[in-house]
Amino acid sequence: MLLLDAGQPVSLHDLVMRVWGNRAPNSARGILHSYFSRLRTALADEHQIVRRGHGYVLDAPPENVDVHRFRELVRRSRRAAAAEAALALFDDALGLWRGEPFAGLDSPWLREFRAALHAERAGVLLDRADLALELGRHAQVLPGLTVRVEQYPFDERLAGQLMVALHRTGRQAEALLHFQQVRKLLASELGVNPGPALRAVHQEILTGDAEMSEPRRQSAPGVISPQPHDLDDEDVLPPLIPRQLPAPPRSFTGREKELEVLSETPAPVSVIVGPGGVGKTALALHWAHEHVGEYPDAQLFVDLRGFDPSGERVCPDAAMRTFLIALGVKPAAIPRDGAAMSGLFRSLAADKRLLVIIDNARDVDQITPLLPGNPQCSVVVTSRTRLTGLVSRHGADLITLDVLDDSDAHDLLVTRLGPARASAEPAAVRRLVDACAGLPLALSIVVGRAQEHPDFSLTSLADELVDASSTLNALDVDADLGIRAVLLTSFAALDDEAADLLMLLGLTPGADIALDTAASLAGKTYAAIRTALRALERASLVRQYQPGRFRMHDLVRAYAREQAERNLGLDRREAGLRRLVSFYLHTLVRTVQLADPGRPPISPIPLPVGCTPVPLRDRCEALRWVTAEADNIAAVRVTAKMLGWHEAVWQLAWGSSSLYATQGNPGESLSIWQDALAAAHAVGDENLECLPHRCIAQSLTRTGNHEQALDHICRALAIAERSSDVVQQVLSLQVLSEIHMRQQHTREALDTISSAWRLVTGQSAALRATIANHFAWCMKLEHRYPEAREMAERSLTLAEEAEAHKLRPTILDTLGTILAETGNLEQAVDRLEEAVALFGDELFSVSDTLYTLGCTYRTLGRDDLAEKNFGQALELFQQQQRGREARLAQAALAGLSGQAESP
Q1: Among the residues of 803-896, which ranges form H helices?
Q2: SS3 of 19, please?
Q3: Residue 343's closest CA among 312, 322, 365, 371?
Q4: Helix, strand or coil for residue 601?
Q5: What are the counts of helices (DSSP H) followed by strands (DSSP E) for the chain?
Q6: Burial, 61: exposed, middle or buried (Cβ in 10 Å; 0-12, 13-18, 19+)?
Q7: Cβ-contact 310, 363 below 8 angstroms
Q8: Is residue 862 within 8 Å of 900, Cβ to Cβ?
Q9: For the segment 706-719, what is each residue's pLDDT rounded down to a tens digit?
Q10: Would you say 458 and 428 are in contact if contact means Cβ atoms under 8 Å apart?
């Protein structure tokens, strides 16, 4: 199977489908890996199987594979100018066939591919026979034609070739008799007459003029079905061009990119995929009506009801009958056999430009018989499932449709409500748009609700929608129309594993979820969760917006949560959330260990069975993970608080506090530690209150609330002294010193940090480096520059000894500031620039460094660099709501431009 795509990657999923189809065992991927290992051994040095992207590649050149050589020889033959050369190339191609392809192997995919290969070979045999007859080799081809006519009695092209060969070998009567046999067979089995090409051969034989007919070379393989004009006059209704498209959607908005793709796609089939209610049909119909003039022969439409609440889908045969009748075939003349109907449809479409809209399809099998097979025709399919089979088998283009963006959703709602009503309550319109989260069906239902009661305010409707407990109720119209009805049919189509995962995902508080997180949430292996997530993605219930990261629409989440509360017991729901909280907590603890190794560690809550934290390997991985998961960590902390999991709340605060402190968000850090303090009270452990009090104090002083900060730091210091915890005493004294410093009480700040320095003797090098750096800063504030520089350099040495890389930029900032204030400007720039580079995402600290760097460049007369750094510092100060510092930066910028103002 890898040879069929020699040199091209084949995904594991495709290989599983090729080998087992929909009956793959759970161990399918493991079995394939075993096969790869054995194949590598068997192939030795001749060829290699390598991993490329998401698939596997066999590096054999295509010309070494018989099927590729066969196709290349056929292509060359059909391009050949000389008939003799073309015939020889056909013979070379056919000579590569040796028995049945994939003999002894069986799977749905193999059966389909084997049939396609036979069809290709049949087409080549037909083309070769035409060439041989052109070259007068009728006697040579006659035996083979006789045998193949028995195998393919409905093939009119083959029948015509046999009749010509019989006639030219002097067997005119047999040729005419064969025509009568074919005519009777077509009439009795398909209800049609022979086509014009075969009738022409018959007429030429009757008149003895068969030599005049040059056989037609075709590249299309397989059985030739009756042509549209093969039907007798009585079988065809009076000409009427089908115009089956429903009316275009009212107030269509947005979708410019998707419309452009539909218009420019070279593929004859386009598949619009998306969740229920996202506007797939509206997009298809809007585009169809804009391009209706390009398809003058017919515009056909069928709703296959693949996700109809009744469960009654439209079968392909029923849809095909409607197409044939629309194209003028009388019902009595329509074949009963599905394949014959499809053949007749393709024949009718062969010389026409048709537009076919296939709406609400469930699977590929529903669609394939309805494809016209003519590249001049266009087919647009809509489905909630990702019909990748159409892409791989028929070269379709896949267009994934997401919700409307805020602007388009707002425009759609305003247009439907009417500008007057919308402008009267703009805030309510904004809330309605937010509640619908860009889903066109939800927006349409809102419009319907508003129009039911034109005298009601939009605010009352918005109030109902934004209440999470009533959102789905507000968007239900009746049993068959509403968000619940749409989602029910998608949910019902899921297997048990995917349905269970969807319900658990509905319980998660974050905006998105990673693969490893989902595995812990469900307590399953990565492989099992990857399969379930793929099923949800194919059903358009989740969207993989980045590799390995998934999102779900807010209304899908609400429905999934509702189903979880209905179908999953309390124990299962709580167990899933405990695994989720533990996953984030344990991974966060590991992140702190790697990113801030000098920080005193904690012992996290026990890890539940089925929970597997991310095995982070280094600081870079840890920082990437915490950056990607910051919002989810905050959401999980709120969930733990709501559920009363106090120990988890405290530990999540411990893990995430430095994240908010260094990113310049002391307000968020304050909220976190206030929750942690409440959790510590609930647990009844005074020692757990020490850290929250200290961190609350630091957040308060950084937002200018120094008196409240003093109250909390005194409590923290008292608890640390009562418990004889030297580390907490030292750290509390450091924060107390910072409070004095921010109050401009520099002497008290220095005295306080001196006490901390005396206590820190014998503690870790990282803690001593932290206190030494703060000590150096306080000495600088008192203008004790030689001692300050010496202490800063000592702090740098201690940090290097402890491998506390996180401390280096902070210490470099202190050292650079001391050098700048003592006139060593070039050295100061070097230290400060390095600090800025190392701070990275530590926005609170880097903003101060940028300001100092701006001052240093200004003193050096390099106003361009000074302006750049002052501007960056100002932006960060404003984000951090640090008014005093922002005014200083603004004044510095004004001074550079000659417009200095007092800060």
Answers
A1: 808-821, 825-839, 843-859, 863-879, 883-896
A2: helix
A3: 371
A4: coil
A5: 41, 11
A6: exposed
A7: no
A8: no
A9: 999 999 999 999 99
A10: yes
